[in-house]
Design a protein that fits this description.
The chain is α/β, with parallel strands linked by helices. The protein is built from 21 helices and 23 strands. β21, α20 and β22 form a beta-alpha-beta unit.
């Protein structure tokens, strides 16, 4: 073996710069590959490579050595085994200021590898496709790639590793500034990125494979990993740093306006999930993660007017979500007040031109039906995470149990279903008054259910609504009859609630005494 590096360049302190003499390139994502290889060749770097990466570099006229020439062994098993060989991993993992390691390299004819540029098979892109087969997904589980990435990252004192084409510029700029070398600090940071990369990759694989089973229990180990997609100016408050991770930007595509804030993203998520409950043309207006107005109607324009009328004060500066293409008439109505964000599956003729006149307003195209998304609800707590299945329970008329002497009328039943679907997305304790398929008053987030009833009625009164003959939904059971009686006092004629209180009999008796129809769902919708 001819070790082309001087003794001084390989036995210096771990904090020293590392001159790149020999690089291994093996990438699935070939963006910028030829430019990178050209630049490395310009620095005098010997390049070795594999498979399609080798062909692309070679076809560009850049000197490159096939890894099979290095290992003395061909690629086998349809490319499943290419780089899993001591002449590759020995060259990556050797501690070059360890004389014993250096003597072993010499004994076995292994040359050090200073730079590893690897990105992995596109597993996440594969499983994101509709109707992907398990066998196709399994073939995109990279083995040799993660092994090289982890080996290089482990040996960051003597090997630099790059896992993302977006980092090529940083690497080459560093080599330019340091005469073909990479500093210790950059090697360390690249190693951190590398381990983050393989952690995310393994998390995606384990999560997908687990999802293919029928097990109903939570996994014994939780893998939480997502790619940073957007840095945010701050979190809920200006003194909190924040960033967005994962695929939110694929589901909700910003078409216009300032960058989304932390709170914008929370509100968009809340509004879209509430709107997804309804099949008819529907508008949901959200403020501080709570729907302050919601309505379904024959047209989006009418639905918007009804949703807005629930609480015109809270709607100022709020988030509007519609589940149909946004038409110009509705856009003109939205334009009459300050609206922070507008979300729609599409925007009709002339709508973008109208709404983009206000530069600060964010316009979001919802690209995914949220009903189709699988996943878990994960929240952080001190020292860990709480994990649950998302609350995707949908109620149907046949699921309801009438517990009072009087059955709800058909009109009341329609209103009860609508109120229940809205209450599901209101912070507990939640009380929602409804007439038909429009909200009249929303009481959210109170410590007492009675207070939520009073606040919802008060807001309805401020909006000018007479609650006589309305229906009311409670996200959890009435522990006493007082909450029910508060609703009866303002005119509610029918109630939907989960039931399950030890005092259900008392509450049913109070409903019967006041001629109120009441149905139990058997399901509650706490939202903390």
């Amino acid at each position: 073996m001819t070790d082309h590096r001087s003794h001084e360049s390989t036995t210096t302190s771990p904090a020293a710069d590392l001159r790149i003499h020999r690089a291994l390139l093996s990438v699935s994502d070939k963006r910028g590959l030829v430019d990178l290889a050209t630049a490395l060749h310009g620095f005098g770097v010997e390049i070795i490579s594999t498979g399609g990466t080798y062909k692309e570099i070679s076809n560009a006229g850049i000197p490159v050595t096939n890894v099979s020439q290095v290992t003395g062994f061909p690629e086998i098993l349809d490319g499943r085994v290419k780089t899993l060989h001591p002449k590759v991993h020995g060259g990556i993992l050797a501690v070059l200021d360890n004389e014993h390691h250096r003597s072993q390299l010499k004994e076995h004819g292994i040359e050090p590898i200073d730079l590893v540029v690897v990105n992995l098979y596109p597993f996440e892109q594969t499983i994101a496709q509709e109707n992907v087969r398990l066998d196709d997904a399994v073939e995109q589980i990279d083995i040799g790639g993660p092994a090289m990435v982890r080996a290089s990252a482990k040996n960051f004192r003597h090997t630099a590793v790059v896992v993302n084409p977006d980092l090529y510029g940083i690497l080459l700029e560093e080599m330019k500034e340091h005469n073909g070398a990479v500093t210790a600090q950059t090697r360390y940071l690249l190693a951190v990125r590398a381990f983050q990369h393989t952690a995310q990759y393994d998390a995606a694989i384990s999560t997908y494979l687990a999802s293919q089973t029928q097990q109903s229990e939570m996994p014994e180990s939780l893998a939480v990993s997502a790619r940073k997609t957007q840095g945010l100016r701050y979190g809920e408050n200006p003194h909190q740093t924040a960033a967005l991770y994962g695929r939110f930007g694929e589901y909700f595509v910003k078409l216009h306006g300032k960058e989304l804030s932390f709170n914008n993203i929370l509100d968009i998520n809340a509004a879209a999930h509430c709107c997804a409950e309804f099949n008819d043309p529907t508008v949901v207006i959200v403020k501080h993660n709570n729907p302050c107005g919601a309505a379904s109607a024959p047209s989006i324009s009418e639905a918007y007017r009804h949703a807005l009328a629930t609480d015109t004060t809270s709607a100022f500066g709020g988030i509007v979500c519609v589940n149909r293409t946004l038409d110009k008439a509705t856009a003109e109505a939205i334009n009459e007040i300050f609206t922070e964000v507008v979300i729609a599956p599409d925007f009709g003729p002339g709508v973008m031109e109208l709404l983009t006149r206000k530069k600060d307003r964010r316009l979001i195209r919802q690209a995914v039906n949220l009903r189709t998304i699988r996943g878990q609800d994960i929240r952080s707590v001190a020292g860990g995470f709480l994990v649950q299945d998302p609350d995707q329970h949908r109620i149907h008329t046949e699921d309801l149990r009438v517990v009072t002497k009087r059955r709800p009328t058909d009109d009341e039943m329609e209103g009860l279903i609508f109120a229940w679907n809205v209450a599901k997305h209101v912070k507990s304790n939640a009380i929602v008054y409804v007439r038909g398929t429009r909200t009249l008053g929303v009481g959210a987030g109170q410590m007492s259910r009675v207070d939520s009833s009073r606040i919802a009625a008060q807001k309805a009164g401020l909006a000018g609504f007479d609650l006589g003959g309305c229906v009311v939904a409670s996200d959890a059971f009435f522990p006493f009859s007082d909450g029910l009686l508060e609703a009866v006092k303002v005119g509610a004629s029918a109630v939907i609630q989960p039931g399950g209180s030890v005092r259900d009999g008392e509450v049913i008796e109070a409903a019967d005494a006041n001629g109120v129809a009441m149905v139990f769902t058997g399901v509650r919708h706490f939202r903390h």
